[in-house]
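Supplementary Note 2. Why include the ligand at all?

Several targets in our set were suspected to adopt different conformations when bound, so apo predictions alone were not considered sufficient. For every target with a known small-molecule partner we therefore ran a joint prediction. The input for hydroxy diiron-OXO moiety is given below.
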Amino acid sequence: MISKKLQDAINEQINAEMWSSNLYLSMSVFFAKEGFNGFASWMKHQSHEEMGHAYSMMDYMIKRGGTPVVGMINVVPTGWGSPLEVFESAYKHEVHISELIDKLVDVAAAERDKASQDFLWGFVREQVEEEATIKDIVDKLRIAGTTGIFYIDAQLGQRK
Ligand code: OFO
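The joint prediction is reproduced in token form.
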């Protein structure tokens, strides 16, 4: 059974994952309005993926006898200056999420909860991928000219 302290910490992370989902949905709307349909579609997939992280944490909590909380989600940003700015914000956000996950592992270790540490290491690994994927997009956008941006938009639109 999961401790109350770890349960509270995971619930905070569940809230952060749902906030991330809304953030990427907001970015998707921004892109759709700007005519970048590929970026919009990519961000919608990302939003789904973040909800998936929240679901997975909720399922885990239930298996361990805890109670996941579906709490209030704070408002997310709605306006950016350019596609590069959007992806830079997304990258910064993922770095922040990685820090939160690292801290969660520390809580699980302090609680001597091996199963939770094992579960959370999966997210530590996931964050390496998330950061790398978004950083790669940022790097490409930094060197792309106007034509390049539309090429990247078309490419990201192929995400399944
Ligand atoms: Fe974007 O990552 Fe969830 O955890």
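Residues 17, 20, 50, 53, 94, 97, 123, 126, 130 surround hydroxy diiron-OXO moiety (CB under 6 Å). The longest helix spans residues 4-34. Comparable summaries for the other entries are listed in the accompanying table.
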